[in-house]
Amino acid sequence: MSAKITGLHHVTAIAGPAQRNLDFYAGVLGMRLVKKSVNQDDPATYHLFYADAEGRPGTDLTFFPWQQLAPSRKGVGLSVEVQLAVPEGSLAFWEERLGGYGLKPTTLEVRFGERALPFRDPDGLEVALVETGQREFSPWERSDVPENQQIMGLHGARLWERELYPTATFLTQTLGFEAVGQENGWSRFSLAGGGSGRFLDIKELPNLSRGQWGTGSIHHLAWRVDGTPQELELRTRIAAAGRRPTEQVDRFWFKSVYFMEPGGALFELATDGPGFAVDEDPTRLGESLVLPPWLEPQRATIEAGLPLLHLPSPRGVSLP
Ligand code: ZN
């Protein structure tokens, strides 16, 4: 095995109203909106990307605001929680901040030796802030959250499965994950030696029905690869394991291959480059609607069909 997955690249979830999603992630959580685009398969829907100041791979949580969808139904074959890395000692700050916006985090937990604060976003998406040491991260100077408390990127994700074994086998034998331990019914898998941004935790729930996408659910987990040669090599291995990956798709800021893992959750491979600065000045990321070149001729129609969004002003966020 030479091509390797190096960690989470991005996590994409389904939101309700776009403005509320923006208010929460850019305003309350203080992440930077690094790209305002549209769903390339459904250009009447935004695709909003929140990340660190540079939008580096591994920091990026993205949303399709599909407010016409029903709320998701939690169940097996779905990712059920996204974890975001925060600095050690910052959870007291976060507990108070979330509480100030009327979100009641559940109690602090210790998971695999790390302190975690789970809560639900305004659409019911399960998020956990997890304290972790230093990692590659660029603070966002215009965030309402002080730099030493800011979210540093994706930490890991949780997945429910009817059967652990087929997914575990696929993760370890095809994708290069390592099984590193179990705690409270969760089996932890890690990539590239582990560490923040390289975790996937799975719980087996044999009697539960299949989960269903909807607002408040994770749509897919995307995993990092260095570039196209590594992505295509992994694609070949995924195909050999019978998982029927898509062809490589050009997502403009990265190149992607999609496939279902054996339990039915949607996974993606995504290349580290070229990145979000390929089509915008890095100092102005996310300020205007960016369309991939093939949608540019339809810009007027697309813009007319999208709700206007405004960045939350510091301390001006109110959540309905
Ligand atoms: Zn994706």
Name the CATH class: Alpha Beta
Number of helices: 5
Strands side by side in the biggest sheet? 2-3-4-1-13-16-15-14
Largest sheet: 8 strands, mixed
CATH 4th-level superfamily: 2,3-Dihydroxybiphenyl 1,2-Dioxygenase, domain 1
The Rg value, from CA coordinates, equals: 19 Å
**Beginning-to-end CA distance, first to last residue:** 50 Å
E-strand count: 16
Bound molecules: zinc ion
Under the CATH scheme, the architecture is Roll
The SS-based structural class is alpha+beta
Beta-strand content estimate? 25-35%
Q: Any idea how many domains?
A: 1
Elements, N to C (H/E): EHEEEEHEEEEHEEEEHEEEH
Helical residue percent band:
10-25%
What's this model, at a glance?
Helices cover 16% and strands 33% of the residues. It has 320 residues and is an alpha+beta fold. It has a single domain (8-316), classed as Roll (2,3-Dihydroxybiphenyl 1,2-Dioxygenase, domain 1).
Structure description:
With 320 residues, the chain is an alpha+beta fold. It has a single domain (8-316), classed as 2,3-Dihydroxybiphenyl 1,2-Dioxygenase, domain 1 (Roll), CATH 3.10.180. Helices cover 16% and strands 33% of the residues. The strands form two sheets. An eight-stranded mixed β-sheet has the order 2-3-4-1-13-16-15-14. It has an eight-stranded mixed β-sheet with strand order 6-7-8-5-9-12-11-10, covered by helices on one side. The radius of gyration is 19 Å and the shape is globular. The N and C termini lie far apart (50 Å).
